[in-house]
Amino acid sequence: MSIAAVEQVDDGLWSAIGDPTRRRLLDLLLIAGDSTATTLSEQLPVTRQAVAKHLGVLDRVGLVRATPAGREKRYRVNEAQLARAVAQLSSVGSAWDARLQRIKRIAEAIQRTQQD
Predict the structure, then answer these.
(1) pTM of whole model > 0.85?
(2) Into how many domains does the chain fold?
(3) CATH number at residue 8
């Protein structure tokens, strides 16, 4: 993988996913299909307001979509954006695997020259 491909990683997306509460919200939404901030807050050790703020972050990066439901909103995971995040993670993982293999080859070459 080229450096350019790694640079295409969406930092905002990964910043949003980097928070453990937001990852848990994604998990809960994937299980439930859709839910409100009130219902989600009942399953987490944070307030409804905190859940709503976290959902707002996830919405801004496109990981969830909100639809009005009376006085609340129902949130659902945007599976296309989640798939994009998974693809980016896979891409970054592959790039690091390649880097680590190069480091290993260099270390082995150094070790061989020291043994001679």
Answers:
(1) no
(2) 1
(3) 1.10.10.10
